[in-house]
Amino acid sequence: MLKFVKDHMESITGIEIYPVISLLIFFIFFVLLFWWVLTAKKDYIKTVSQIPFENQNDNSL
Questions:
Q1: Distance CA 4, CA 11 (A)
Q2: Cα-atom radius of gyration of the chain, to the nearest Å?
């Protein structure tokens, strides 16, 4: 099965760019996410982290 897919993919011209594009999208996404985490305001992070606890009384049995 893998040999069939590999042989089929090799016959497509210009397919070698897709793994490079996928890697770039993956890398850029996580770099931006890391940048956002480092530059996020601490007050915002604290406020958002408390949201699940605010609704805890509403959902109790």
A1: 11
A2: 22
